[in-house]
Design a protein that fits this description.
The chain is α+β, with helices and mostly antiparallel strands and 365 residues long. The protein has three domains: 112 residues, PAS domain (Beta-Lactamase, 2-Layer Sandwich); 76 residues; 155 residues, Heat Shock Protein 90. 44% of the residues lie in helices and 25% in strands. Helix 6 runs antiparallel to helix 7, helix 8 packs parallel to helix 9 and helix 9 runs antiparallel to helix 11. The longest helix is centred in the middle third of the chain and has 47 residues. The model has no long low-confidence stretch (mean pLDDT 87). The protein binds adenosine-5'-diphosphate and magnesium ion. Adenosine-5'-diphosphate binds next to helix 9 and helix 11.
Length: 365
């Protein structure tokens, strides 16, 4: 096998391949290992593998054992790897001794399998079961409720006209119209969730999209002391996506952040390219990711809330629908991206959306 072919295999394989010498120093670190660990090859090379493969000593112990005994060892169950950014990643790991042509031990080859894809597939399978029941129920309900609601709204407006000279009653008809509109809004969101339209993809300029949303939200919160900060990487090219859907996605996240804060705090929205992270696709070259973060310095999310946060109808708000994040997750998945959150109760929350950096009309970019 030519060295060139071997290198191409290492570059394209979906498994993290890490080679260490007998001192346990890293001498090879393929792109999938960079994606899994969050460390670049430059950072990893020459470092003791314990610095990079963090998260309990089980990972390091397996390598030590393979080197000491000169035979292959793999982890029987999932291990947790702590990435460079502090996130935890479920992985499988196997280690094989690397022998020189004369049979002497030269080091070890570590294979890391990122189980995250698996975890999220399991999770989405579970939530898609739930969605099927909800889909049918919701579509039926929405249909049945929409018409009578229109009737109630119309009647309330007529009533308001009839009672034009009774200023003391105006408040009641206003409540009727407002609440009917709120229910219609919920039905609308429900329809978005249960009957999503196919994506209409085109070129989306994330900077101007986020600019517009922030402008809107600044106006909506003009009375509050919420500071909206936008920090973009101006070099990010337009990406292929559905503008309206991406607008809805980021609006939901930014609104949630503002709602979490109440009337005094800071919402920070940022974009950047992660050249160190690449999305491996079954047919095509790995593509870099664009990361959009929405951070707030609100109260954070308690663990028991965090577990249910993407479940349709889960809300902790009096006027909430609990559909916002379910819709966000759907949109991100349809764009082949990921959505993650990090929260520190008492300090705030950051939602991170990672989208593949695919240039419009050039799917292999
Ligand atoms: N930035 C945030 N900070 C704190 N809690 C949040 C944040 N974003 C979402 N949440 C929690 O997640 C729940 C679900 O959010 P979502 O699906 O958008 O529905 P809704 O906003 O209608 O409640 C919220 O009710 C809230 O408890
Ligand atoms: Mg919301």
């Amino acid at each position: 096998m030519s060295a060139d072919l071997a290198n191409r295999i290492l570059d394209n394989i979906d498994l993290g391949v890490i080679v260490v010498d007998t001192e346990e120093r890293i001498i090879l670190f393929n792109p999938a290992a960079q994606v899994a660990t969050g460390w670049s090859e430059r950072q990893a090379r020459g470092r003791p593998c314990g610095d990079i493969l963090r998260g309990g000593d089980k990972l390091k112990r397996l390598i030590g054992e393979a080197l000491a005994r000169g035979r292959s060892i793999s982890s029987p169950d999932r291990l947790i790897l702590r990435r460079a950014d502090g996130c935890e990643l479920p992985v499988n790991m196997s280690v094989s001794p690397l022998l020189d042509t004369d049979g002497s031990l030269q080091g070890a080859t570590v294979i890391l399998k990122d189980l995250r894809q698996l975890v999220s597939l399991e999770e989405s399978a579970r939530s898609s079961d739930r969605m099927n029941t909800i889909d049918t129920l919701a579509a039926g309900l929405a249909h049945e409720i929409r018409n009578p609601l229109g009737g109630i709204r119309g009647a309330a407006q007529l009533l308001a006209k009839e009672l034009a000279d009774r200023a003391d009653l105006a408040e009641y008809t206003e409540v009727m119209v407002r609440e009917v509109d709120r229910v219609s809004g919920i039905l609308e969101e429900l329809a978005n969730l249960t009957r999503p339209r196919p994506l209409k993809t085109g070129a989306v300029d994330l900077t101007s999209l986020l600019d517009r949303i922030i402008l809107l939200e600044r106006q909506a919160h003009a009375a509050d002391a919420i500071e909206f900060i936008l920090q973009v990487d101006p070099s990010i090219p337009p990406i292929e996506g559905d503008e309206e859907m991406l607008h809805r996605l980021f609006l939901n996240l930014i609104r949630n952040a503002a709602e979490a804060i109440g009337n005094n705090g800071r919402v920070r929205v940022g974009t950047r390219i992660r050249p160190d992270l690449r999305l491996h696709r079954p047919a095509g070259r790995p593509v870099p990711l664009v990361e959009v973060t929405v951070s707030d310095n609100g109260p954070g999310i308690p663990a028991e809330v965090e577990k249910r946060i993407f479940t349709p109808f889960f809300t902790t708000k009096k006027q909430g629908t609990g559909l916002g994040l379910s819709i966000c997750q759907r949109i991100v998945t349809e764009h082949h991206g990921m959505i993650q959150l990090k929260t520190r109760p008492g300090h705030g929350t950051t939602f991170t959306v990672s989208l593949p950096l695919i240039s419009p009309g050039n799917k292999e970019a």
